[in-house]
Amino acid sequence: MRVRTVPVQPHCFLYGGFDIQMGRTHEALRSVGVDARPLDWWAREEPFEILHVWGLTAQHEELVRIAKAHGKKIALTPLLPYATPTAYLRHWVGTALGRKRAVREILRNVDVLLVVNRLQADSAMKIYGFPARSIEIVPTILDPLFFDASAVAPPMDSFVDYVVCAGNIWPRKNQVRMAQAALQAGCPMVFIGNAMGGEESYTQEFQRIVDRSPSLRWHKWLSWEDLHRVLRNAFGIALPSLQECQPASCLEAVALQKPVLMANEPYAFQEFFTGALTVNAKSVKSISAGLTRLMANPVRYTPQRDLVNECRSELVALKLRDIFERLLA
Predict the structure, then answer these.
(1) pLDDT tens, position by position, 75-92
(2) Is the pTM of this model over 0.90?
(3) Which of 226, 300, 315, 324 has an alpha carbon within 20 to 30 A of 26's alpha carbon?
């Protein structure tokens, strides 16, 4: 079985959690005997059976149409809005203005839609009208290190009792309010994430806060081993992001049995994060109060570890292989 993958955008322009999952999916599938790798756009001959497209965006329309015409099966992993009144309104306004034509054409050619949780499946059915029989739930893959209780993870430095906020630096991830809230709460904070192209003014504002605050640290890049060390030695994880699908850092926190603070937004209410503390992401005061509660009672806000067991690489690999085998049957 041969699977070829197409990203949502060139990784040289943007590389985040969604893009990391593509690489982990390749590795997972190869571990169970599936020939999975990126599509070679320059190859004159590229024999394969399944095209795995990441992202439900208009630029994929022609690719999906041509692949389907050549007899390829199409699997698509989207980042969908959760089924809220605002999401319905935006979708129907976009449809009325003709902006959703390409998306409809892509979905018409998709053989299986791979979503990360039941709420995303609901969105696919209720907002986009995609049939339930062609939807499969495949959660985010976590690095095996996060499930290994015996993994050696010495501290990076003498910084202790800190909370981690991981994600590229831009307004959607809400790091400026997070940093302001950490200072109000007296909570040491470690930020992990690159600056985003086009978000220079936001990054500069964030940098100014960090530069004048000894209790805040910012790692722009870490190896997987060092990321694991920082997370395993953290007090907890906070991600008051304004919009997410299934944030890997919060799943990693659950695997490591750390308390989790999230925004009171739809993504926080998926089954994996049951028990996490939620706050108003647009209020520094609310985030600060949440940090105080998290530090005072970490056990209360630590979701059960068995919630993320299905994020183990070997389990996701077997599930995906089964899905793809059924596509070709």
Answers:
(1) 999 999 998 888 888 888
(2) yes
(3) 226
